[in-house]
Amino acid sequence: MPHRILIIDDEDDIREVAALSLETVAGWEVAMASSGAQGLARAVEYHPDAILLDVMMPGMDGPSTFRELRKNPATAKIPVLLLTAKVQSNDQRRFADLGVEAVLFKPFDPLTLSTQIAGVLGWS
Amino acid sequence: MPEQAMQPELSAALDRLWRQHLPQIEERVSLLEAAGKALTGERLADHQRETAKAAAHKLAGVLGTFGLMKGTILAREAEMLCAGDADPATAQQLTAIAAELRAVIAGRT
User: Fold this and answer.
1) What is the pTM of this model?
2) Containing domain of residue B48, as a range?
């Protein structure tokens, strides 16, 4: 059975490239949300195997969305990987300290994104 | 699917997405150009600076994903400029970077 991934990102282009990459390269099933609030609802109904979560979003940003996901028993155990274009090391440490599975960086290579995610999550 | 067999399929799909999102990408460069012009006349409002900074941040994330790493590097420079001092030198640099970004984007076939 293919893995199921939820991508939460307010940027249409990034969201669609990531989805294309995971579907085409890895054959995974992908659901998408364009905001933190929409992502929380989608996570409950879709119950993905993992969530790829953008950091900088208007309204509820990535870290806030992550904390809400952890508060809800229905989504608390879903692995979350943050996706960010922030390259400064203090930002990276701050994100890693949140308790997410990993912090991935934009730009990403569409050819290897799924390998990165699978590697972090121990998926063969 | 083997990587070599999958690459043309992914590449073609990425090209479709590039064409689809090109207007949005170009609009972000326009925001940088507008910020550069406003800085030249020392009338860059805070909200315009923040908008330009966000546009640069988004360009940095997306351009490399479409294979334009030079675009990502330029956009990161623009993001730093938008966060720094508002002076004529910054205005000149920002305007030059926006022009380079236009060229990089136009060069993607």
Assistant:
1) 0.91
2) 3-106
